[in-house]
């Protein structure tokens, strides 16, 4: 509701609900990356999977200036996914992977842009986005780099 007691017209609807579902999934897969962009009610809600939510984000150590750029790219990719702009998110995550090829979080995020399960939860713009084989490839790379959620998302792929 706004200050005059009217219902906020942007708070309901299928796109809003799809964004909240995606934000919840991404927050569980990549804890810590989405919290700055989540709506306050969702950011403060108890985690659905405490074991996953408590896991640290996997980033390569020893990068200072590049680290800020990497984190900005990851946030921008997360925001593009929340908007349903999968093609843009994919391009941003690819830049993040090229900046830090040892980041399991970037690999997992890039895999999510191909994942049929993830894309089914949002109103993705653009055709031909789903590619389970590429999702599997990126998720396996994330697993090899030690991302704790990689096994779970790999197990859900068709």
Automatic annotation (TrEMBL):
TPR repeat segments: 70-103
InterPro entries (UniProt xref): TPR-like_helical_dom_sf (IPR011990), TPR_rpt (IPR019734)
Highest taxon in the source lineage: Bacteria
SUPFAM superfamilies linked: HCP-like (SSF81901)
Keywords: TPR repeat
Family matches, as PROSITE patterns: TPR
Spans through the membrane: none
Protein name listed in UniProt: Tetratricopeptide repeat
């Amino acid at each position: 509701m706004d200050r005059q007691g009217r219902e906020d017209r942007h708070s309901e609807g299928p796109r809003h609900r799809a964004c909240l579902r995606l934000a919840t999934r991404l927050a569980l897969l990549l804890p810590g990356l989405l919290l700055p962009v989540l709506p306050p009610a969702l950011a403060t809600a108890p985690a659905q999977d405490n074991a996953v939510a408590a896991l640290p984000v996997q980033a390569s150590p020893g990068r200072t200036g590049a680290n800020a750029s990497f984190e900005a790219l990851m946030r921008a990719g997360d925001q593009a996914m929340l908007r349903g702009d999968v093609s843009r998110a994919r391009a941003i995550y690819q830049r993040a992977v090229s900046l830090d090829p040892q980041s399991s979080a970037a690999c997992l995020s890039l895999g999510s842009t191909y994942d049929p399960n993830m894309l089914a939860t949002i109103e993705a713009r653009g055709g031909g986005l789903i590619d389970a084989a590429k999702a599997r490839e990126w998720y396996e790379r994330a697993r090899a780099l030690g991302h704790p959620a990689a096994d779970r998302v790999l197990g859900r792929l068709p």
